[in-house]
Amino acid sequence: MTRGRLGLVILLAFVTLGTGAQGERTGAWVDQVIFSEVPDLAAAVDLLLAGELDLYVDHFLSPANPQVLSTVVQNLPYQVSYSVYFELTFNPAGPEFADGRLNPFSVPTIREAMNWLIDREYIVDSVFGGIGAIPRYFPIHPGSPDYQRYIETCRALEREYAPDPARARAVITREMRALGAELVDGIWHYHGQPVEIIFLIRVEDQRREIGDYVADLLEDVGFVVRREYKTAHEASPCWLFPDPAEGCFHIYTGGWLSEFPRHTGEEFEFFYLPEGLPSPLWQGYRPAPEFDEVARRLARLDFTTLEERGELFRQVLRFALEDSVRVWLVHLRRVTPYRSGLQLSVSPYVGLRYTWAWPLTLQWQGEDRPVPGGTVTVGISTLSLNRWNAVWYSVHDGAGRFVLKGTVDLPLLQDPRTGLYWPQRVERAEVVTQEGLPVVKTLDWVTLEFVPEIRVPKDAWVDWDAAAQRFITAGEKFPEGLTAPTKVTVHYPLEFFTTHWHDGSCMSLADCLLGFIMLFDRAEPDSPIYDESATRGLEWLLGNFRGLRILGWDPLVFEVYRDLVELDAELLAAYAAALLYPFHQQHRPRPNPGPRVLEFTAPWHSVAIGILAEAAGELTFTPQKARDLGVEQMNYLSGPTLPILERYLRQALEQSFIPYAPTLGEYITQEEARQRYQNLLSWYEEHGHLWVGNGPFYLDSLGEEQVVLKRFPDYPGPADKWLFLTQWDLPQVEIRGPERVTIGGRTGFLVDVRRNGELMPMDEVLEVRYLLIGADGEVVAAGLAQPLTAGQWQVTLGPEATENLSQGEGKLIVLVFLPGCPEVPQATHTFQAVTG
Q1: In whole numbers, what is the pLDDT of the chain averaged over residues?
Q2: In order of start, what are the domains of the chain with their CATH numbers?
Q3: CA distance 119 to 606
Q4: What is the sign, positive or negative, of the torsion defined by CA atoms of 477, 480, 485, 490?
């Protein structure tokens, strides 16, 4: 019996896995999730309070809605995350641009002085209402494990670079004169002309207000500032793509999305060194030699102990501030409000939109445990899903990425609290590295061993022959032999190949192999579906991939050899597991970190119809190739490409088409191929789309006004497996203060933060903030509480705050933000506001 025929027998004999042996709940807790478009937080809060909405996907806090925030804090459960941050990007070219204009920011000392000129806390208070952001001084996440590891250095540098306008002015004056500039009537001149700063200010968000604030500061110290207000599309051709020596800009208000900050050493190379991006701006970076060396060593893990890494990290934090081609400003807070009784897991680092665990943790709570079943209605700011297929999707389509995560099952699941990976479909992994590498393990599903040398077996697959459609072995490509610094052996359980796709097809080895083949094939000119946009990813893969060898297929066991080192053995195992799983594209978001290992899954037969359509030149997987050929990019969800894909589906059914038959023909029979295509056709006729996954939910329907996910009853695994991801050890907050507050007077409150009865150390608290609420329910003041000693903070209210109170009962709400925790412990103190 061939392997493919065995897969068909398993498919036909499969028994539904909707409940376990004792009838326990499997997969998702809720039966249905309905997504609808709700444009803003204010509308969402009204719907939540009215019971017409259960959850609103994370939204930025802003000064435009302090009352809405107050309503959330006082009436709804919510979680916070820190997934977006703002900074100033400087053009370092110079000292003169090509046309002779002076660029003051070519001087690192002037860029460094901008840290003293800017008041980050003022930005938080004036632009974000005192609570919608936190100050940021470094390229690393202020709640990250690395920040906590080196918190003494971080806090000391934050004090050293605290606002000092007089010092900033003195440094700028000294350096401008050294450049040959003169201060004439309060304006800097160079060669008789005013020094004009071209400031690109983004207009879509709070960066417009931040840009105006910084521009005012620059004008105060003698510069003429040309404020150019632009959208992302309008600004990119000026700051990202041209030669910086052309002088299209001096400063740009940059914004970035967080990735999970497990280890952040590579951030310094990405943001400050030419290796960061192949953009002309990055190629113009010239860091000091000592900064360059330390940043490279951290990015490449060029150290042997964590103590050595710590010393490098302490150095690089200072070097980054001294260089300051980027001046970091604030990290924004997102809030995810929901109805009482609902519970889910939200990553404090990347927010709900990018939390892979949400489909498996979303639940209605009973008295002491989840209640199976029910519907959850979810509001999202935009529900316009872009073109989606298994090979390509837009990283900017946050709505699509969030919704469709529910349709995906992963080999490993990232812990939203720590960033480490837990086994989902994988059973266990064995990691072997060369002696001397700084790799550690934390979780028990991984073993770690150190050896003097790792040799790649001659029969391991190392490359792909697109013309012959077969793998190339290490013995063929490297007859002299090949070594690798890491080896990972991944074990899947026997029941892996009894799990189902949403259309009823059974998981097979061919599903896993097709994605691995396409990593190579799409970047090979001999391939019928060659795509130039895939070549860079293959170049990177071949730069560190040393081989893959299947040891057994039932159960599936394979080895992966790579010239890729990470601090966590769990992360090395995650990279390896993703190579032989039904992922058909692995994004590499940055040059230095490893690939983003968890993408969207699809069975081989749904991808195969896209292969037929692209090989015929009628559709393409990627937008780049679609533009080049003047054809449509395929969309498996909706739109005009669905009828074309249906035509190729019927063609594949008629031909029993097997993609890459010289290789996959060993694992797929024509009988199984026909059955697979028939399953997909039946699915399409029932649901009206071709998006087939293997996750806890399937995509039931999508329209302009709502998208519906329904629980997949055949999803394996107990529903309570991931409940621990929703549990936090939260501290208790107590406010001590007066019961009467004089309007227009000065008063103070003490805040105690305890965990298990003990006052918490300062380094376990990110910050403490407050909201002052008047008798009419309006927010009259907000700000930062000041630390006193371990576990104690003080809120001081001056006349400028209390004068806005009206007579009657007021409230002081204190919010305690913890590193690595999306839930916010809080306390409320009521008082009577009286006249003096």
Answers
A1: 90
A2: 82-332 (3.10.105.10), 398-712 (no CATH), 728-834 (2.60.40.1930)
A3: 54
A4: positive
Amino acid at 509: L
The DSSP-derived string for 765-799 is --EEEEEEE-TTS-EEEEEEPEEEETTEEEEEE-H
Distance between CA atoms of 170 and 155, rounded to whole angstroms?
24
Strand 619-620, strand 632-633: pairing? parallel
Give the separation between CA 99 and CA 214, rounded to whole angstroms: 26
DSSP state of 497: G
Q: How far apart are CA 155 and CA 157, in angstroms?
A: 5
User: Residues 106-141: pLDDT tens digits?
Assistant: 999 999 999 999 999 999 989 988 888 889 999 998
State the virtual CA torsion across 182, 185, 187, 191 in degrees, nearest 10.
Answer: -40
DSSP 255: E
Name the pLDDT band for 64 (thresholds 50, 70, 90).
low
Residue closest to 607 by CA, chosen among 663, 535, 541, 657: 657
Cα 671 to Cα 9, 253, 653, 662: the distances in Å are 11, 58, 10, 17
What integer pLDDT is reported at residue 59 of this predicted model?
67
At 609, list the tokens: 């119809």
Q: 207 Cβ partners below 8 Å, 6+ apart?
A: 86, 201, 253, 255
Phi, psi of 675 (to 5 degrees): -65, -40
Which of 616, 609, 584 lies closest to 681 in space, CA to CA? 609
Share of residues in the chain with pLDDT > 90 (%): 70
CB 281 within 8 A of CB 239: yes
What is the C-alpha radius of gyration for the chain, rounded to an integer number of angstroms? 29
State the virtual CA torsion across 641, 642, 645, 647 in degrees, nearest 10: -110
Encoded tokens for 667: 């694992």
Which residue type is seen at 280? P
CA distance 193 to 195: 6
Q: What is the pLDDT of residue 394?
A: 63
Neighbours of 32 (CB within 10 A): 16
Closest CA to 516 of 446, 577, 473, 561: 577
Edge-to-edge order in the sheet of strand 370-371: 342-343, 363-365, 370-371
**Running DSSP on this structure, what letter comes out for residue 357?**
T
Residue in this structure with the two tokens 């060659």, named with its chain if needed? 530
Query: Which DSSP symbol is given to 730?
Result: P
Asked if residue 435 has pLDDT above 50, the reply is yes
pLDDT of residue 23: 58
Q: How far apart are CA 466 and CA 477, in angstroms?
A: 15
Q: Note whether 298 and 268 are within 8 A (CB).
A: yes
d(CA 663, CA 152): 56
Regarding predicted confidence, which is higher, 33 or 821? 33
Dihedral, CA of residue 58, residue 61, residue 67 and residue 72, to nearest 10: 30
Spell out where 506-600 has E strands: 545-553, 556-562
Q: Output helix, strand, coil percentages for the chain, rounded to the nearest 5.
A: 35, 25, 40
448 in Cβ contact with 441 (< 8 Å): yes
Q: How deeply is 740 buried, as exposed, middle or buried, from its count of CB atoms within 10 A (0-12, 13-18, 19+)?
A: exposed
CB 191 within 8 A of CB 179: no
DSSP string over 576-642:
HHHHTSSB------SSSS-------B--HHHHHHHHHHHHTTSEESSHHHHHHHT-EEP-SSSSTHH
| Segment 491-527, tens digit of pLDDT | 999 999 999 999 999 999 999 999 999 989 999 999 9
- Report the alpha-carbon angle 422-425-427, nearest 5: 70
Residue type, 129: G
